[in-house]
Amino acid sequence: MAGCRVSFPQLGNYHAPLEVLFTMGFEVEYIVPPPVTNRTLALGSHHSPESVCAPFKYTLGNFIETIESGADTLIQAGGVCRLGYYGELQAQILADLGYEVRFINLAGMKKLSPLEVYSRLKQLNPKVSLKRIAKSLPVVLKMVEYMDEVEDYIRKNVGFACKEGLFEQTHAEFLSDLRTVRSRNYLDRMYRNYRQRFRNIAVSKPKNPLRVGIVGEFYTVMAPFSNHFIEKELAAMGIVVDRWLNISNSLLHPPKKIKERVKPYTRYPMGATSMATISRALELAKKGYDGIIHLKSFGCTPEVDAMPVLQNISRDYKIPILFFSFDTQTSETGFKTRLEAFYDMIMTKKASQRQTACSGTFSR
Ligand code: SF4
Predict the structure, then answer these.
(1) Domains: count for the chain
(2) What is the rounded CA–CA span in Å between residue 160 and residue 151?
(3) Whole-model pTM above 0.85?
(4) What is the distance in A from the centroid of ligand 1 to the CA of 77?
């Protein structure tokens, strides 16, 4: 292994495939970022410009904690919004704070050829061959897909588990075992084994459960701490949770013809995840979901632009939409109160729909 200790900001559970990519592909040590906590946010907020969106603060705090854990090389991804400028600014802030780390900024990666990306990442370990990295990629990409499939299944069933905590415990074991994977065969076998274990977990699901879809901004949707663990809250209310946004759906298999699908509601792309938000909300409305929850960071312009469009979808399909805008000061009590009120509302609506359906049957 080369001497470098590399890390990347925490996002969901994707540290598992990243660890495999860096250890197996680049032959460098990967420092798993510490879980995001109040301290992460306090550190990030303290050293960030006040008006910047929350993902900047979370990732900066996470970088500082990762350096404290021993990382000497940090990677920041680019993005199609102001995320593209984050890397430069964060590198400067860390340097001003006196941290001597190497910062690899992949901003503008979408415009780079695979060879240019390779040459930037080769700084991690100049001795590593392209062949070796290429060998690790199919394992890493498949791992991401398997993880996303498993988490999708959990979201739809965890609220109905007969034995509390079994899904969470099996999921933690799955993530821990993923970190040991070094070949595609082993990964496939492990996945099949866990898929069976998840399917064997007894659930008691009503015939027509409440179904809620989550849409919104990339980081806020995928980083549970930043959205106050909303998926867990919804599951505890006995709700089937749908969340389309993950790495497989957005980056590995990006949706096609999205502009055509949303044409009745919007003609021009508004940046970042906004078009995917609108497209998914429309799909959920057409599928008859009981409600939609839109999550974003305070000040996220692309998602602010999507909000009036979502309101039009809500009006046309009579589907309630709850909007949450998180910043570093969001009150837990306020969050829970609004979520509970939303739950009461969709529950009452569903009950009255059931009643109407029953009285319709009797009158025939
Ligand atoms: S999508 Fe929004 S919240 Fe996310 S980085 Fe861009 S501006 Fe910030």
Answers:
(1) 3
(2) 15
(3) yes
(4) 13
